[in-house]
Structures are given as structure tokens and as C-alpha cells.
Amino acid sequence: MSYDGGFSGSEPTLREKILRLNWGLVLLVTTTASLGFAMLYSAANASLEPWAGRQMVRFAIGVAMMIGVALVELRFWLKAAWPFYAINLVLLVAVEIIGDIAGGAQRWLDFGVLQLQPSETMKIAVVLLLARHFHCVDVEDVNLPRTLLVPLAVVLAPTALVMRQPDLGTAMVLVMVGGAMMWLAGVRFWLFAALIAGAAAAVPVAWGFLREYQKQRVLTFLDPGSDPLGAGYHILQSKIALGSGGMFGKGFLAGTQSHLNFLPEKHTDFIFTMLAEELGLVGALGLVVLYALIMAWGVAIALLARSHFARMLAMGLTANFFLYVFVNIAMVMGVVPVVGVPLPLISYGGTAMLAVLFALGLVMCCHTHRNIWINRRGGS
Amino acid sequence: MQRRDNDRQRVFTRRAALLAGGQLLLLGGLAARMYQMQVVESRKYQTLAEENRINLRLLAPSRGRILDRFGVPLAVNQRNYRVVVTAENSPDVADTLGRLSRLVSLSDDERVRILREIRRKRKFVPVTVREYLSWDEVALVEVNAPDLPGVSIEVGELRAYPSGAKMAHILGYVAAVAQEDMDGDPLLDLPGFRIGRNGIERQFDAALRGRAGASQLEVNALGRIIRELDRRESEPGQDVVLTLDAALQRTATARIGEESGAVVVMEAATGAVLALASTPSYDPNAFVQGLTPAEWSALADDERAPLRNKAVAGEFAPGSTFKMVVALAALEAGAVDAQTQFYCPGYMELGDGKFHCWREHGHGSVDLARGIAESCDVYFYETARRVGIDRIAAMATKLGLGRRLGFDLPGERAGLIPTRAWKTATLGQGWVLGETLVAGIGQGYIVTTPLQLAVMTARIVNGGRAVVPHVARDVVQGRALAARLSAEAPSLGIAPRNLALVVDAMAAVINGARGTARVARLDVGGQLMGGKTGTSQVRRISRAERLAGVRKNSDLPWRHRDHALFVAFAPVAAPRYVCAVVVEHGGGGSAVAAPIARDVMAEVLRRYPSREAPGAGVATLPAHDRPS
């Protein structure tokens, strides 16, 4: 019961924290992002304008923020979980309202300097909140209905809003991240089985909610050849570009399909295809290895952390990171339907870049504060 | 508390490991899929990628020229300047077109059409505003180029026939490709491509057309051309050299003048055609750009049939020009000889019928020489009666009548030489003797083309050799037709003595004291002409008409008048050239056709004074620069 005082390992000093920062992880992240800069430079036909230059600036800001986040006390983030989630929910509703006024599917809010996409930050908020939630729950109570009601609501509320945008990809990622968190918290297998069965039963209902183009995307995914000039065009062109890259690629700046615009969205969602076309299997696998190392680092941090909050947070954010990577790459290879999910650290886009670095900052925070014991009420 | 936390840490660790393992497995799956696509199936995707980005554009070859025997160009390629506008280079296309219309005439309809086309096409695709610009218009557009953003001049090729209507029936013309012309040559799919539609242009289209070149273009996803990757130049079409003499052709055409008819001039020994005129004619240049329906029907409905090449497709009763055939048939059969004489009282009675001689009061006693020279009809009624229709038909066929000769122009007609079997088969009636008599003077069922008459004459005067007519001498760059010239035509097996008899009689037609065509006498440096007149009746002047005052042929409506015919050869001493003239509904052979033959033959003898047949060897062509 000596731990009941809730204290073991005092708050490290700033100097200790800086020394404990995962500089290796920062290097990995920078290497990955640099690969992205090179691809954006190529996508703009060997020019820093309009993408690579801006992306570098954002990355620099993002890395500073990431380190800042890592140095903030972990307890602060635990306490910030609910407000952070609440703000994100409000922003999502705001997007919804503005979207209705603008009369279209709008996913971002314009703050002048930054076009914020709340659905990106919402995923972090969900992980943060669920980490906090399960941190405060006894292991025996995890499978009680009252314990599970909160996470379900926390996940489904933003999911419903995101679905309405409509952003099928983010909605699916939210559900899967929430699932991962519950899994890590120790929710029973049969509950998962029941949930999955329920989800399957909900598919016909959800189908009714989908917009026509989303249905088309799913149908096209099931049979891409059916409409090679229409909805299947993007998948087909992406596969052609990727496959034609071969083992060593066509060379940096020399991807014919990308540069002749056969490849759609080559600077955002389909940037992996361009990389695979220009740098070949070697380059593509290289990037996958970089991602795997980043994730391994995240898993290692989670396993070494002393507090359950830190464990859950690091593992949940790593799972979130994985989902980005997997869904994006699987999408451009035609393994899953085309859903607008960016490739983390590589795709051009402000919110996505900052959100990923923010999340990695939180993961690093779990490391700098790995020895901190946090009691169930969030105190030490 | 600590124990509880240890519990949930254990659960967490186990599940985190499972989750991480699952993630690693999924990443491995992605890597395997990448390997599958980028290594195993890479070739398939590379092919698809190449197909994506490479557009093959055909390069049209320049069409081979058609030259006369001296290398004078008869069909050439001219530059076709067209003005095009590219929408993306012009800030305001309508305004630019407005300014352009002040320089080159553009109707409002055309402007509407152009603007519609521009809206329909991608912005970087040039749209043709007008074709066939004059040089002045080109200069005007170029000078004003700064005020005409997006407007440029493109150069194409346009087939042109400098000799216009005079060669139309030989050369033919080129016209837009129709669906039924598609023969698998990708060139035919090219917009604006022209295919040989008639005459030499059609007969030798394959050689003239050339082979398509190709340009491999890299295009982007919108079809915009990025650059040329590879280029295989087109192979220009081969030039076709004719045996034709353009100057002589002009003389012949001019000499028929306003009449409707045909003139064929041929080398007697080779069958090489020097002139092949058919009138009236049409301007082939008009066909290249396309005729209006009104222009087309004006040509198609004309009773003088300007579209028909009458020299090869006009079928006329040969009239008295057929008498040589009857004479040779009789001589060969032994039915008559040089001394055989018949008495001509001006008619011959057969059963109830009375067959008139053209000379009302008769010729008296007539032998074969006089029969031909004075064209005594009664002599040939009797001769035909003796020799019989089938032997006449056999001789006619030997001499090239009644069947297609394999001439190298399209549309050749066979004519008709009747036999007993033919009549039974087609009309279901038996042959009657009166029909043999009528056939003896080249009337009745018999029809021949002017080309066949020229061939018949050539075979008679060249010693009985089966020459075949042709107008194409060779196709430059191989596939020479010259081989045909080196081999002497095979003999028809007609006794030279009999041929000489007939040739002498034909000489007397013009040069004898009582010949029917003394008007056509000609003497070019001692070289004389021989020949035979023919007047073929289209319709008898009926009793009613006679009573109404119609006495002469010229009183009848044009389409009922007689055809005037004449076949000729020169020089008499050693025949080198033959000529056949048919003037459709022209009247009497001696009055109308013979003078034309005389004038044309005089020109032939003046142009070819040498005894050596000109053009028999390969003439050296003047160096004409190919239009590029």
C-alpha cells in the first residue's frame, strides 16, 4: 500500500527530460519526412514550390511542437483529455454547420494561418480520453456495461459526425482505434465478437447512410475493372504506376505515370504510389521499414511505461499511426477501397502533419515520463 | 493496488504484443503485395504504363505523282495552307475569329461551327478555321500574327491536276475515304486522307499511296503532347509513269472540241496508249475538295455523260469500221479472195427484205479492195452471208473485240460480238440470216469501244500480233511494267497476205481515187495515213419523219443522230501508230470523224518523226523536284 501515496519516481527535471527525449525517434521521423519532401519536390516537377517548401516549414514547426509536447508533464495531458475531446467535438460540429452553409462536404475550418481539420485531431483526442478512462478503471471492472458505455459513446459520437461529412476513411479509423483501445484495456474476446457481429449487422443500415459516390467507391473496390474510366480509374492508374516501378523504380523525378498526371492526387493520398514508381520496391519497402521502426519504438515505449495511462496512450497512438500507414498503402495498391487517408509524415497537408507530430510528441512524453506513477484520479 | 496494476499490465502486455504482432503481419502482407505487383507482375504494369503514355500518330506519306512519258507531271501534290486556331493560346477566341474574318472570308455559319468545335475539343487541340488558303491570304494572316493570338498556319498536301479536265478520265481523282474503301490500311482512318477514286489514281492506288510513317508521342493524362519519343518517316508513294503524251492528249481533246466522243492513239506494235481523250470531261480538281450535290447531279445527269470515259466504257456499233473483220474472216475461211467480185445495184434482196447500200445507185462490180475503199455495203452483205456469223465473230474476238482487254484503267467495257449461241442463250431466239447481213456492215447487235477499235486496227496493221493496250508504263522504284514492252506480242495466226490485202485497201480509203475518206488525206514528209470510215445508225429515219421533212441525219434530235467513226494508221509504208475516233451522234464518219483522225495523226507524225518507236526504251525523265 506504500504505492497508495501514489508516488514513485519524482517528476524529472527539464534537463533530465531533454536527455531522456527519444532523439533516435526524432531522427527516424525526420528521415521519413525528408523522403516526403523529396517526393513532393518530384511531384512539383523538381520544384520546392508549391508543396515541398511549405511542407518543410510545417515540419519544422511540428517537430518543435512535438518536443514541446514531450516535455510537458504527462499528468497535464491526462487532465487535458476531456477538455481536448470536448473542443474537438465542438469543432467537428462547427465543420458540420459550416459545411451545411457552404453546401458541400467540408472537412476543415479556416483559421487564417491554419486550415484545421478537426477529424484529424479527433483521433488523438479519442485515444487520449480512452487512455484516461481505462486508466481510471479497475481491471475487474473493465467488462462492466457501465464501464464500456463511456468509451462506446466517446468513439461513436465523433464517428457519426465524421460519417456525415462524409469521411468514410476517418470514421473507420476512429472505430478501429477505439476498438484497439478497448482491446488493450482487456475487454473480453466475446464482447469483441459481439461488437463485430453487431457492426456486421449494421452494414446494411450504414449502407443507407452512404452517399452515392461512397457506395460507388466500395463497389468499384470490389470490382475495379468494371469502370476503368470512371470511379475505378484512380485505383487502376495507381496500380499501373506502382507496378511499373519494378524493383528499383524509374528513378527520382523520372516517374512517367506520376509526371504525366495519370496518377491522381500524387502529392497527397497517392504519394506512396509515386514513391513506389520512382524508387521501386526497394524504396517502398524502405519506407515501410522506417514506419515499422517508428511503430516499434512506440510499442517499446508503451511496454516500458510505468503508468497505465502512458501505456495505453503510447500503444493507442501507435495503433493510430499504423492505421494511417496501412489504410493509405493498402488503398493505393487496391487492397482496400479508396478512402481519403493521408500517408503520415509524407503526404502534403498541414493538419495531418501537425496531428501526426503532436501524437508522436505524446508518445515521446510517455517516454520522458515513463517512471511517473499516476493514481487513478490522475494525481501522483 | 500495485497488484491490480500488475494484473492489468500483464493483460496489456499480452494484448499489446498481439496487436503489434498483428500489425507487423499486416505490414508484411502489404510488402508481399508490393513484391507481387512490382516484381512478379511488373512487366504487365510496365506494358500498361507504356500504353498509357504513348500515343501513336500516323504520318501520311506524300502521294506518288503521275507523269506522262516525258516526265511531265499530270498529278502532283500542292501545298494546302489552312489556318487553325488553338483556344488555349487565345484570350478571347470569338474576338480573334472576328479579327481573322477581316483577313480571310468567313461566313457567320462557319464561325458558329468553329466556335462549337472549339468548345467540344480540348483547349490545346488546334481547330481548322479554313482550308485552301491562297498565298495572299497566308501572307495576310502571317503579317497580322501579333493581333491574332492562337492563330497559326498549317501546311498539308492537296492533290492537284494541272491539266484539269483534259486528263480527267485517265488520271481519275482522289476523294475522301468511304466506309467500303477500308482495306485495313491504317492510313485510311486518317482524317482528311484521300483515296484514288477513278482512273490511274484508283487503278494504281496501292503504289501511289505509299506507306504510313509513325510518330510515337508521349502524352499526359489529358492527351496533351509532351514530346516525341520516336519517329519513323512515312514512305512516299511511287510515281506512276504513263505511256501517255500530254501534249498529244491536249491536241486530241482540243480537236474533238465541243463534240461528245473519244479519240484513242496507240502504238501499233506495243499497245502503248499515247492519247486517250473522252469528251466532254470534268475538272478532277473539283472532286478533291468535294462537289456540292448540285454540281454532282449536273455532271451525272448530263446526257453527254461527262463522267464516263467513252474511250473504254462507251459502246458504239462499229459500222463500216467492222468491215475489215468481215473481210479477214472471209479471206481466212476462203469464202472470198482478192479477185472475188460481187455486183452492187445499190441494194441486196433477201427473202422479203431489201438491204440498202449507203450509195443509192450502187457500186457496180466490187472486189474486196474496192469494197473496203468505197465501203460498199452490198459487197459485205454478200461476204458476210458466205462466211457466216460465227466465223465473223471468231475473227472479231481475235482482233480484240467483244471482250475486255485488261486495260489498266477501271471501267473498261466488253462490247458485244453476237454469235448464234449467244442469241439463243440470251434472247431465246434462233439466228436469222438478215442479222448476219447487218453484222456484215457492223450494225445490229455488235457494239465496240473506241479502245477496242484502236486495238483491232493495231492488230491488223502490225502483222497480226495480239498487242494488249496499256497506259501505265511503269511505277518508278520497282514493280516495273516495262517487262510487257520487251516481249513481242504473240501472233494471231492470220495469213500475212490477207492482212496486207486489207491494209492496202485501208490505205486506198484515204489515198485512192474513189476512197470514202479522201478528205482525211495527209502527207507528213512522205508519210501517208490509211484508215476506214464508219457511220453507225442509232435509229432509222422513220417513214413518218421522212414525210414530216426530216431527210438528213442532222435534222434529228441529238441523241438519235448517227455515230461518226474512223479508224486510222500511219505511216502506210510501215504502220507505227493507230488511231480510233468516235464522235457520238456526230453524223457521217468521213465528214466528222476522219478529219479529227487526220489532224491528230498529223500531230503524231510530227512529234515522232523517227522510225524508232519513241518511249519504247525508258525515257530519261526531266528532273522534277518532288513536292515535299
Describe this structure in words.
The complex is a heterodimer of chains A (380) and B (628). Chain A contains 14 helices and 2 strands, in the order ααααββαααααααααα. Chain A has 380 residues and is an all-alpha fold. Chain A has one domain. By secondary structure, chain B is an alpha+beta fold. Chain B folds into 2 domains: 186 residues, Alpha-Beta Complex (Penicillin-binding protein 2a (Domain 2)), CATH 3.90.1310.10; 362 residues, DD-peptidase/beta-lactamase superfamily (Beta-lactamase, 3-Layer(aba) Sandwich), CATH 3.40.710. The C terminus of chain B is likely disordered. Classes of the chains: A mainly alpha (380), B alpha+beta (628).
Question: Could you list some keywords that capture this structure?
Answer:
heterodimer, A: mainly alpha, 14 helices, globular, B: 6-stranded mixed beta sheet, 5-stranded antiparallel beta sheet, 22 strands, 37% helix, disordered C terminus
